[in-house]
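Contributing new records

If you add data, match the layout below exactly. Sequence lines come first and carry their own label; structure lines follow with theirs. Keep one chain per record. Anything else will be rejected by the validation script.
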Amino acid sequence: MSVMQLKSELARLSAAQQHELAAYLGHLRALREPKLRREITRRNSSRSTRDWVSLERLKKHWRK
């Protein structure tokens, strides 16, 4: 299956399925990139507000 065919099939998924797929792809990326995995772990474990991201900032990031 080509990437173009895959994209076409993925576009047909429901929003919930697309979100699940996006989460899974993020998981695979974190497995491939140890530096990213460490950064995510550090930020998730942090209690410091300097590591927090506002909901508005997150929404803006995902609109790009």
